[in-house]
Amino acid sequence: AQTVTQSQPEMSVQEAETVTLSCTYDTSESDYYLFWYKQPPSRQMILVIRQEAYKQQNATENRFSVNFQKAAKSFSLKISDSQLGDAAMYFCAYRREGAGSYQLTFGKGTKLSVIP
Amino acid sequence: AAGVIQSPRHLIKEKRETATLKCYPIPRHDTVYWYQQGPGQDPQFLISFYEKMQSDKGSIPDRFSAQQFSDYHSELNMSSLELGDSALYFCASSLGRHNEQFFGPGTRLTVL
User: Is residue A112 scored above 90 in pLDDT?
Assistant: First the structure.
């Protein structure tokens, strides 16, 4: 079974600074997707960024970028120019590709605080 | 753009009662997923449907059942409710099983 590990239960960052959230995963599959979801106090699950495992290029979405290291099974999220609205719980998630189930497997989450 | 709709948004039940949660996917989406997020926990997959057929099953208790109807909406039926069933229940939908899942706002179930 696939597992996703987020080793940082809580992180904090100064406004306008950069922060990196860590995620590692374990899978025997070669084809899969990785995601970062943001869950603000409203509890809505918001997709921040996604990465296809077959793509070597790291995904970027405005101030959000990932460092995907397939061999190391590592998938970290970098938030640049942090804003107060970035404060939330961040979940790393895995989804296999190919035949079979397509449910998301989540890590335990990292609570990010942004200090004004 | 239309989003996933879940109803009710909040539900309070007593132990041993029954609850029904509803999910209306984004128009034309044919796949629905249900997740349960306990307090301070990560979301856990319960069950999914593709084209009105159950496609996968996760950690769903036998007391729970679900189905997807001809209009693609889905209902999660929960019986003999226990205190531990108190959680946020998310529905997500996608166009095809391979594509991105869009989450609804969740239904917060409190069992007293």
Answer: yes
Q: pLDDT (tens digit, 9 = 90+) per residue, A54-109?
A: 988 999 999 999 999 999 999 999 999 999 999 999 999 999 887 667 899 999 99
> Phi then psi for A95, rounded to 5 degrees?
-145, 130
Cβ distance B106 to A105 less than 8 Å, yes or no, reads no
SS percent in chain A: helix, strand, coil, step 5: 5, 50, 45
* Contact residues on chain A for B30, CB-CB shorter than 8 A: none
| Contacting residues of B for A42, CB less than 8 Å apart | 105
**A96: chain B residues, CB-CB within 8 Å:** none
In Å, how far is A20's CA from the nearest CA of chain B? 20
State whether residue A103 sits within 8 Å of chain B by CB.
Answer: yes
Q: What is the tens place of the pLDDT at every residue in B6-50?
A: 999 999 999 999 999 999 999 999 999 999 999 999 999 999 999
Alpha carbon B53 to chain centroid, angstroms: 15
Q: Which two tokens stand for residue A30?
A: 């070669």
Between CA B49 and CA B15 the distance in angstroms is 28
**What one-character DSSP code corresponds to residue A99?**
S
Mean of per-residue pLDDT scores for chain B: 95
Instruction: Supply the DSSP string of A12-63, one letter for each residue.
Output: EEETTS-EEE--EEE-S-SSEEEEEEEE-TT---EEEEEEETT--SPPEETT
Q: Which residue did the predictor score with more confidence, B98 or A42? A: A42
Could A102 and B58 be called an inter-chain contact, meaning their C-beta atoms sit closer than 8 Å? no
